[in-house]
Amino acid sequence: MARLADYFVLVGFDHDKRGSGDGQGRIIQRFPEKEWEDNPFPEGIQLFCQPGGWQLVLERKSPNFLVAVLTDINSERHYCACFTFWEAVESLQPQQNHANVTDEEDSKFIQAPQLFAPKSLVLVSQLDHTEVFRNCLGLIYTIYIDCLDFPLETVIGNLLTCIVPITGGSQRTISLGAGDRQVIQTPINDALPVTGCSVALFLKQLGINNVLDLFCAALTEHKILFLSSSYQRLTEACRALLSLMFPLKYSFTYIPILPAQLIEVLCSPTPFIIGIHSSFRADMQDLLDVIVADLDGGTVVIPECIHISVLPEPYLIQTQTALCMVLDPELEYADYAFPPSSMSASSMKFQDKEIRAVFLHLFAQLFQGYRWSLQIIRVHPEPVIRFHKVAFLAQRILLDDDFLIKVLDGMAFAGFISERGSPYRACDLFDELVANDIERIRSEEGNPQKVLKHIKEISEKLHRNENPYPAVAMHKIQKPTEGSHLRLQRSTFPQLDEGMVQWFIDQASAKLKNVPPAVKVEMKCIVPMGHPTAAIDRNGIVLANSARRLEVVRNCITYIFENKLLEAKKLLPAMLRALKGRAARQCLTQELNLHVLQNRAVLDHQQFDYVVRMMNCALQDCTPLDEHLVAATLLPLVTAFCRKLGSGVTQFAYSCVQEHLVWTNLQFWEAMFYNDVQNHIRALYLEMECDHLTETGSVNGEREQKSALGVAAEQLRLWPTYSKEKQQELIDKEESTVYSQAIHYGNRLTYLLLPLDTSKNRLLRSTAIGDMESVSNSFVTNSIAGSVAESYDTESGFEDAETSDVANSVVRFINRFVDKVCTESGVSSDHLKALHANLPDIVQMHIETLDAVHRESKRLPPIQKPKLLRPSLLIGEDLVMEGLRVFLEPDGREESMGGSVGGPSILPAEGAIFLTTYRIIFKGVPTETLAGEQTVIRSFPVASFTKDKKISPHLRAEQEPQDRLQLRSSTFQLMKIAFDEEVGSEMVELFRKHIHKLRYPQYVHSSFAFTVGQSVKQVMEPKQKEKNPSLRTMSKNIMKNAKKTIGRQYVTRKKFTPPTLDQRGIPAHGDNLDQISVSDEMEQSALTLSSTIRSSDKSTMSHMIERACCRDYQRLGLGTLSNSLTRSKNEPFRITTVNRMYGVCRSYPSLLIIPQTIQDSTMQRISRCYRQNRFPVVCWKNSRSKSVLLRSAGLHGKSVVGFFKSQNAPTAGPSQTDSTSLEQEKYLQAVINSMPHYADTGGRNTLSGFTSAHMHSSVLGNRARVITLANPRATLKGRESPQGKWGSIRGSGRLSAYSLNADVGIRLAGKETLSLQANGGPSDSHYFRQQRVGLYIIGDKSQLKGAKQDPLQQWEVVPIEIFDVRQVKNSFKKLMKACVPSSACTESNTSYYHSLEESDWLSQLHKLLQVSVLVVELLDNGSSVLISLEDGWDVTTQVVSLVQLLSDQHYRTLEGFRLLIEKEWLSFGHRFSHRGAQTMASQSSGFTPVFLQFLDCVHQIHLQFPMEFEFSQYYLKFLAYHYVSNRFRTFLLDSDHERIELGLMYEEKGEKKSQHIYKSVWDYIDRLSKKTPIFFNYLYAPEDGEVLRPYGNISNLKVWDYYTHETLSEGPPYDWELVYGRREQVDDGERMDTMAPQTHRKIVWPCYDNQNKTEPDAISKLLEEMQMLECELGQVPGKWKETWDKIKTTQRTESMQEGKHLSSSSLLISSSLSHHRRSQCVYLHEAAVGSTLNLSLDTDSSTTSTPSSGIMGRKSTSTLYSQFQTSESEHRSYEGILYKRGALLKAWKSRWFVLDKTKHQLRYYDSKSDVDMKGIVDLAEVESVTLGTVAMGAPKNIEEKAFFDLKTTKRVYNFCAQDCQSAQQWIDKIQSCLSDA
Length: 1877
Known about the structure:
Blueprint: E1 2-3, E2 7-13, E3 25-31, H1 45-49, E4 64-71, E5 77-88, H2 93-99, H3 104-109, E6 116-125, H4 130-145, H5 152-160, E7 163-164, E8 171-174, E9 182-185, H6 198-206, H7 208-219, E10 223-228, H8 231-244, E11 253-255, E12 272-277, E13 290-294, E14 299-301, H9 315-327, H10 348-366, E15 374-378, E16 384-387, H11 389-395, H12 402-409, H13 411-420, E17 424-426, H14 429-436, H15 438-444, H16 448-466, H17 498-514, E18 524-526, H18 540-544, H19 547-561, H20 565-578, H21 582-594, E19 601-603, H22 605-620, H23 624-638, E20 641-646, E21 649-652, H24 666-692, H25 698-705, H26 708-718, H27 724-753, H28 762-766, H29 772-777, H30 791-799, H31 806-825, H32 829-858, E22 879-889, E23 909-916, E24 919-926, E25 936-941, E26 945-950, E27 964-969, E28 973-979, H33 985-999, H34 1008-1011, H35 1016-1020, H36 1029-1055, H37 1082-1085, H38 1087-1093, H39 1097-1106, H40 1108-1116, H41 1121-1125, E29 1133-1136, E30 1152-1155, H42 1163-1167, E31 1177-1181, E32 1188-1192, H43 1200-1205, H44 1216-1233, H45 1239-1242, H46 1252-1256, E33 1285-1286, H47 1292-1299, ...
Parallel strand pairs: 10-12, 10-13, 11-12, 19-20, 32-36, 33-37, 34-35, 34-36
Antiparallel strand pairs: 1-7, 2-3, 2-6, 4-5, 5-6, 8-9, 13-14, 15-16, 17-18, 20-21, 22-23, 22-28, 23-24, 24-25, 26-27, 27-28, 29-30, 31-32, 38-39, 40-41, 40-46, 41-42, 42-43, 44-45, 45-46
């Protein structure tokens, strides 16, 4: 029984504080005035009466009612029912008149408006009877407002003295003495929430998904805020959400109605459920971690920073389905033609209970079997229970479920265990459900009707709990007359007589004293346990692992204990791999348990090593939660398995498995301790029961089956019947049991925490034992006793600060553990003190034992370490440091671990790391037994080294190495090495210093390319005297020039410090050195060079003529040096020598191509407009359209762009800059005039009539004619496609997007440069087509902001957004981490594809290809293009090179590609040294692989056009490797100027060439090409004048296998002598050993073997065999190229005789290999040697012809690609139409079937003419062909005998012929094929 109301309060407006801002309320009267002892009066109640604030209003409002909930300090909730009405405010005028009578007349005219103040009647109660409170307060208001003849004091007195029952289901009729009558219905069980209709209303307001989101958010402890314009709706919603969480109770802040004055509570850091009026929505903008639910709008807003864990499947979908069936039962029958008429939703009251039943059903599924994970620690005097979370999750196979883990860790679940953990208590509906109905719930899964029926049954129980009696007595409550609140009141609410109300309360209290206290009868019972969790497992563990793996584990263990160690050694690798599965680990512990006899198992040394290794592997490869379970099962075993080391010295397994963090996990030890305590407590009481039982047999069986909770429940039931002596005896026995276990665990902890060698603090260094606070704060237990303030631990942190002392650290850790578990388990303080006193002695004794074990273990024969293998070195490569013994550890690449590709683990490997003048090399053997005969080599050039870092120790089963390093290389290599114990730390540091010294030499000439063949001393001491005395002077010159340059940096920066407004938007460049602006001082700096070169001017000029660029210029028809010197006017361009002394531009070559009409004298002025003085020069000419390609750097701020940006600024006459701009204009016009299309208009200077100022505004435009094409198909009509070839054709619409130059803008300029009309069409495409622009200038968009285009100009700017070198650098770093990860990815956001996407590398390739194809289009259509980007040496070089490669087939040959790189990259000054960080000076700038990015683009084009390139993919990889290796001098230094200064440009004639040491990579390639076809592409079949247009979409790009491929057998395959020279030696050695057994079997391992070397392609193999045959015949072996050319000639002759005009290459290859067609593209995958053809069939092929097919009537190369399709007609034995029944949808479709006896298959197509096969039936799989029956959906009017079935091993095919005869023919043909086979 309880009071219906504790307090009645009258709260009104505080007129005294009216003027101070917002109004306030005050308590006018309170009854009773004296607080109840059991229920103090809640403070601040006046805030909740008016949550929006106390305010006066001009109109009287209708009374309103709300229930606020206040929570006191004891977490008790008080329900405050507030009934608010408005009274007229008494006028203040009379008081004023009384004070000043003279103002009486004036007051008649000034009359204040009538105001109304709120007043609230408040009931405070601990019971939640909303409707009763509403009626009671309404009755009091009715008596007042309608002046009824009932004294208010009597009514309030009766209200405060009314006593009602709390539970039991009884009804109580109450009356307040005003002629009223109410019935209060109590629930049968008050543990179940009473909700009325609030839950149904909640679902109606927000919907199913939103409610589920809020439900999950509340369970996972997020902040939830409700908004509504109704306060009562807020209360109802909060109540509904809490009731859905039953049986969990919300334990955080709960305020259904939050007053406006307390709105800062929303910034609380703790979770909450709060409701607030929607008018305060604007005040919540800053709440970034709060989930906001708008009840009125039906929305839930979840901030981006919040992740709500959702219900695990299948529970989520089941809950959603069940809620749909409850809320909308008609949904299931909505599509029925005749829906049942009786289906309709339940009433709100019943629907409310059905929704709650769904969630109760859900909790029963989530918590099923939870009682089997409860650990009972003490039974008497009070039960102490703990929940074993890890065991629960493991048995449910939900160890990785985020939602359930958070719920189990939450405070609500801790309260759930505290409340429901006891085995003997009152039970409710949830207990019955989770114990008895789980089997039913599991059986009903997947049957919605049965689930709904079950939910209805649960809802009926919930409804009966709230409404046990169907007939309810009639209520009688007086209500005020309608509109009574608007009447003019005679007076305010009266002042109540306090004495009279108190008299009522005293009278009632006196009566209650005489009544005996009501005792709540608790129906306690033994809580049912339900089914054990093992039954719930659904065999998930068994399904996850095959029985074969478990058999391997069992066999291996059997072999070990039977001493069949050789057999065990073979099985061990497979077993260790199997131990990654949970079932295998479980099997391991079970099998090991079988070999333990009487807690001891003595093994020999080999057996001991194997067992320890298996234990370590089982602990190492599991998740943290899983680790607890494995460690728990291994804990008894590590103290059982041992080996004898000597007399009286025994080593146990625990000394070898300590290096796992689980042993330092306090939570693990607690769970283990409590589990053992529970078992001993159970055994204690079972033994007592056994003493009292006389029966045996079945009784004993029942006793053995009793769980610990069952035993405890029985004891709790009997507890009141025991005498006090007996009770004390039981308490003492339990306490002794716990104490004995604490001693036992003190020993166990000592075993596992003290390292074998206590002199080394190895374990403490790698774990957190020494850091006591970090261990304690990281774990929270869910025990009932709770976390106790651990005074000892707090003190222990300051007792001994020296954590290096192993013994003290271990003692402190064990003390902490003992304190915690003993306090929770109720161990007496005397026992605890004794335990603390004994622990140091226990630890010390164990240390002494371990010393003897350690001493004896060192006497064991040492493990034989493998012999160090010395690596093969190049000629001239010397060792800097001898090999250091290391372990090469696996990284994130799975292949070397066996893993998904199978095979044994090649890593980890044991060997040595070597440092040479050229490379860092690891060479060793795998530690894996089965791979031990292999050799592992991993190396990379020192010059490609990018980063090293020390890595934290990794847990290993073997000895613990001291130091670990991770070395990264820009050749996509990674070494994780762990140094052996024998390698000291000082040697490791010396190794790192040597690497850095070799990687970043002080000068370029100290790198390996220069020092090759010299001694190491010379390498390490760069000041040593050189052979060539000129190098010394050159180094001095370099230093002088460097100092000058450094000094000039600041001068030039000051010069250009004030930028214009538009320039501020230009992003800063990545490298400081790139920002050096070459000013007029440049001319002075060139003097030193001219003085050195002038003496040999003639030889220099002759060298220039011999240079490759000159030959290329001559080939392109751009002029010769002789013609240029004589100034021949016939040619539009000429070669100028203005830069021969590098006075105009240091980074340009000495010979340049400029227009014929431009004087050399003007070049100096023009160059000043461009960054780094890199002015526009011609680099390529289109032989067909005569358009030219130019390159330059971006414009300076002081150049033309700067002027036309600020064109409105007044100018004072022409200046020098005006003339410079005019020169530049003439230069551009001269380029345009050089083209024949513009020769006639070129004579008339279109700019001559304009002033210089006007020219400034029109030279470079931004958007004037950057044309876009919205509908590309429309412009294709009537226009001839330009010649060229596409990588693949997806569709007809796709083709036209590239075919016109009118749409180039949209592909490049981005969204911002579109200039479309309103209808989406191109703005002036017709005008553009009629008047094509002569010159396009492609510039950086950020630099060209605000520029305007003059329509009369013949050039146009295409502004593009392009990446800078910083982005390339960052992208490359991410690409390296994606392709060569340092560790295996565990999360989805670190997976390979996610990391690849994050790197943006493919996006940058896409952009480069996109720009290049655009330029190719423009050039091909007769417009010249100037690439003017950044400093002109990075992206400009990439684009210019790609354009020439795509446009000119000469550059796709070996010789041409070399020429292209020499010309565009080397001569035009790409900063190889700076971008590659080749010296100490450029170390800070970092590695930026601009050239590698270009090579990747070439690789992408090569993939799409494999027949257009003479060189192979290996050639590109070779260049990618050696451009950073510094083996050759080719890619050193930044420009020709620097190479001349260092004497690299031209070899001296008298210099002796070494046969083995190559200075140029090109010489090396030439020599190697003569020897082997390694760089040659067999598919090379070029077409004259072919222009390539590759697809640049990211979906068309492939990740280069150069980044991901690795060959561990021999290292990188790019140093040919090391890889292939060594093979020849090995082959010779093998050939000599004729006695050795020969085998033809080859085993090729992925990632280990060089597959192209072990299994070369057919052509390479045949050429090699021909050479071998020639050698055997005594002939001089011919060159492979001559042989290849001879074969091609023969093939061509034969084909011409047969009248077949086929390409020799295609004939040769198609004769031996099978090909498929992928549109018109063949994909060629290549590696180290030759080429391997891999052509895959693409189902998305298109029938569109290529645009080049109709030009000039010549045969396009596309026909060659189409010939790779095999001729299927040769193998068509029988064909015809059959109907086939589909496998999935069972539909019959007509197909054209072809029976192929040759290939032994049955193929089918859509039609006879279709070439794309739809499917295939392998006749080898056919079991029978029989007549079939008519099936549903078959074609009509077909005879029954026309059906036949084809049964295969996989499925049964149903066929239908046109008639029975053809069906019989098909059956006969197929059977004859089967019989022939």
